[in-house]
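Could you help me review a protein record that somebody else here produced? This is what I was given.
***
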Amino acid sequence: MRTKEEIVAAITEQLEEKVAPMVDQHGGIVKFMDFDTDTGMVELMLSGSCSGCAGSSQTLKYGIENLLMHYVPEVKGVMGHHDPMSMSQPFFQSNFFNPTFDR
């Protein structure tokens, strides 16, 4: 049986290698918060364009949760929280078409 530290290291490795590049393409950030060894639940913080996004629940359940459960057998589920600091401007805004756009 692995320690919590070993499980957390495996979770963060998957988040950094597989999840971060995927959500970063859309201006999103997914941060690890906690892992509960009793329930097997991973707690994540959704920031950037992920915070407040209507598709974030799909990304959590069908993307991140399935991935983590596959690579880290101790994971039984994932729950996400939207970053309260990102809620003022929750969606990605591109200045590609308007170079003078000021955030």
About this structure: The chain has one domain: 4-82. DSSP finds two helices and three strands in the chain. Residues 92-103 have pLDDT under 50 and may be disordered. The longest strand covers residues 28-36.
